[in-house]
């Protein structure tokens, strides 16, 4: 089954063709990073306009790279939630138009389910059940993935997402967008214990996360140094801060491993590309003798291939939408 998938939840316009949920025939992304660098982050209105400008050409390129025509596509999939509402609507409405014009089924895909599915592409042998840590700029979740479309959220952030906390810290240090990626690079070789940052916990919720206190702490540290005319030690501050964020992610994951005893742990989302997280999660899973799965780096960020992968399993469960499909800025993964 060949699925043409569309991803437009934030600032990347992605279109891919995926066969049977595991084989990527093509994956094309039009990145807006150079433009958003000017503003230090994503500007939703600009992102939506660029999606409108890019989506037709990206779709043509994806079909060309796959060596297929639209008539050889079996279904159309799109990210419909969560994300920037204007950006999502571009992808949803374009997918609805293709579905209507071709008579192909329309498959709605939750963005976070897509991130989990990125591991199906990198690891064709991977099957549920498993414990998933989904960590990105907008989301931080611990999820029990019981089946391809059956999810139970066991932990989530109560405030900021881990990726957002890294992005804001990077911006405070003067690093360019995308902050998390550049912070990871700048922190290489730094002293992870040079600066102590708080590690908040949530009372009566051992699997939940909180990152707002960490973010406030690093911003205050940087502002105090600036007011005193002291240099900003980006390498050591960055290493210490990332260490604190990753420690929180690993601590909650370890508690979940001890409670639920999974055989497999999957990490997904943009922050799954972080080198500190990859290193420490490998140590954690080796300690508990649990198999660990990360997506290939090119599938960590937003892309349409992961949407096409998950769409295959949504289709098998009969999750088909009609032309009344709408986008949603916020929606739980288990809905």
Describe this structure in words.
This protein has 335 residues and is of the alpha/beta class. It has two domains: 2-116 and 299-316, Nucleotidyltransferase, domain 5; 128-295, ATPase, nucleotide binding domain (Nucleotidyltransferase, domain 5, 2-Layer Sandwich). It is 43% helix and 19% strand. The protein has ten helices and ten strands. The strands form two sheets. The chain has a five-stranded mixed sheet, with helices on both faces. Helix 2 (44-66) packs parallel to helix 3, helix 4 (111-122) crosses helix 10 and helix 5 (162-172) packs across helix 6. It is globular and about 65 Å long. The relative contact order is 0.19.
Task: Give a quick precis of the structure.
By secondary structure, this protein is an alpha/beta fold. Helices cover 43% and strands 19% of the residues. The protein has two domains: 2-116 and 299-316, Nucleotidyltransferase, domain 5 (2-Layer Sandwich); 128-295, Nucleotidyltransferase, domain 5.
């Amino acid at each position: 089954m060949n699925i043409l998938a569309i991803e437009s939840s934030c600032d990347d316009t992605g279109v891919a063709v995926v066969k049977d949920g595991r084989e990527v025939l093509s994956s094309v992304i039009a990145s807006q990073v150079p433009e958003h660098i000017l503003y230090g982050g994503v500007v939703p209105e600009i992102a939506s306009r660029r999606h409108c400008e890019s989506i037709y050409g990206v779709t043509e390129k994806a079909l060309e790279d796959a060596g297929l025509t639209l008539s050889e596509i079996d279904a159309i999939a799109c990210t419909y939630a969560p994300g920037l509402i204007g950006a999502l609507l571009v992808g949803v409405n374009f997918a609805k138009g293709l579905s209507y014009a071709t008579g192909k089924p329309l498959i709605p895909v939750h963005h976070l389910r897509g991130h989990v599915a990125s591991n199906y592409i990198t690891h064709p042998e991977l099957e549920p059940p498993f414990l998933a840590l989904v960590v990105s700029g907008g989301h931080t979740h611990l999820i029990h993935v019981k089946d391809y479309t059956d999810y139970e959220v066991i932990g989530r952030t109560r405030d900021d997402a881990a990726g957002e906390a890294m992005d804001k810290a990077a911006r405070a240090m003067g690093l360019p967008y995308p902050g998390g990626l550049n912070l990871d690079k700048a922190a290489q070789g730094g002293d992870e214990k040079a600066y102590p940052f708080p590690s908040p916990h949530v009372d009566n919720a051992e699997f939940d996360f909180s990152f707002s206190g960490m973010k406030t702490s690093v911003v205050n540290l940087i502002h105090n140094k600036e007011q005193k005319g002291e240099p900003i030690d980006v390498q050591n501050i960055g290493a210490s801060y990332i260490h604190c964020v990753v420690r929180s992610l690993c601590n909650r994951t370890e508690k979940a491993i001890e409670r639920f005893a999974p055989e497999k742990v999957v990490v997904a989302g943009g922050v799954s590309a972080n080198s500190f997280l990859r290193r420490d999660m490998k140590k954690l899973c080796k300690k508990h003798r649990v198999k660990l799965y990360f997506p290939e780096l090119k599938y960590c960020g937003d892309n349409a291939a992961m949407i096409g992968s998950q769409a295959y399993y949504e289709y098998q469960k009969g999750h088909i939408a009609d032309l009344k499909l709408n986008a949603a800025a916020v929606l739980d993964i288990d809905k």
